[in-house]
Design a protein that fits this description.
The protein has 288 residues and is an alpha/beta fold. The chain folds into two domains: 156 residues, HAD superfamily/HAD-like (Rossmann fold, 3-Layer(aba) Sandwich); 99 residues, 3-Layer(aba) Sandwich (Rossmann fold). 30% of the residues lie in helices and 18% in strands. The strands form three sheets. A six-stranded parallel beta sheet has the order 3-2-1-11-12-13. Strands 5-4-6-7-10 form a five-stranded parallel beta sheet, covered by helices on one side. A two-stranded antiparallel ribbon has the order 8-9. Strand 2, helix 3 and strand 3 form a beta-alpha-beta unit. Helix 5 crosses helix 6. The two termini are 24 Å apart.
Length: 288
């Protein structure tokens, strides 16, 4: 029931099935919902399989700063069946589209070498920071031991030159096994704080949801209304806020990014305080 004196209560549920009945497509986050960076969550994979068996479309939407083909390879390695989803869309895909619009640009890649696939086949020059006209941030050079403050001096100098930054992963932190590690979004946030201009190529920003709608329409035939898409994610400011702004319903999955204790309604009230809109439900983990 909705309380006229406050926001709607967020029910805690164990099964996604009742919400799937009113959806043509799942738009499902990957890291923290489908896997934890080390291994797949079998119940989550099963839920996607069951939804597809019932005729639904499953699009896995990730803020991974890599092309979707690289993420599909990772999913297979972690034990996620290819039959569990129809397509993968990543912030890396959108980043490549944004870079391609800046043909021939000299760019500085701020991030680990494993993300160099972002630039494969594109007409760009990878240069040192001093010669760059654009920054593409895909993460920290070494996220196992570094944090945003290690980059303050470097980012301050770049911001003073008014170089635009494309953030290829708006996430602030993600789970990796039992640890939380910083992502590109943490550096982009600091860059903005220092006066820099950031273009975000992922959730919660609108262009990535437009890309998802294009893909779903290509799979389904006629366009699918946003109200018939159910977003599932563990990021309150990315997955949930972005989906609600895009006109989708959303289900919150309580990963360690936000919840490190048993899921309770009081916890949810605190987590979603001040957020415009509410998810239709919360789950301790995605399951059918």
């Amino acid at each position: 029931m909705h309380d006229d004196h406050g926001p709607a209560r967020i029910p805690i549920v164990a099964s996604i099935a009742p919400f799937a009945a009113d959806a043509d497509a799942f738009v499902c986050d990957i890291w923290g919902v489908i896997h934890n960076g080390v291994a797949a969550y079998p119940c989550a994979v099963e839920a996607c399989l069951k939804f597809r068996e019932a005729g639904g479309i499953v699009v896995l939407l990730s803020n991974a700063p890599r092309p979707s083909t690289a993420v599909e390879t990772q999913l297979a390695r972690l034990g996620v069946s290819r039959t569990a989803y129809d397509a993968v869309v990543t912030s890396g895909d959108l980043t490549r589209r944004l870079i391609a619009e800046r043909k021939g640009v000299s760019l500085f890649h701020l991030g680990p070498d494993r993300d160099r696939g972002l630039f494969e086949g594109l007409d760009v020059s990878l240069v040192d920071a001093d010669a760059a006209r654009l920054i593409v941030c895909s993460g920290l050079f070494d996220d196992t031991r570094e944090g945003p403050e290690d980059y303050r001096t470097r980012l301050s100098a770049l911001a003073a030159r008014r170089l635009p930054m494309i953030c290829a992963n708006p996430d602030i932190v993600v789970e990796r096994g039992d640890r939380l590690v910083y992502c590109a979004g943490a550096l982009a946030s600091l860059y903005e704080e220092l006066g820099g201009n950031v273009i975000y190529a992922g959730k919660p920003h609108a262009p990535i949801y437009d890309m998802v709608s294009e893909i779903i329409a290509s799979l389904k035939g006629p366009p699918v209304p946003r109200a018939r898409m159910l977003a599932i994610g563990d990021g309150i400011r990315t997955d949930i806020a972005g989906a609600l702004r895009a006109g989708m319903r959303a289900v919150f999955v309580a990963s360690a990014v936000h919840v490190d204790a048993p899921l309770e309604e009081t916890t949810l009230s605190t987590l979603f305080e001040g957020l415009e809109g509410r998810p239709v439900a919360a789950m301790p983990a995605l399951a059918w």
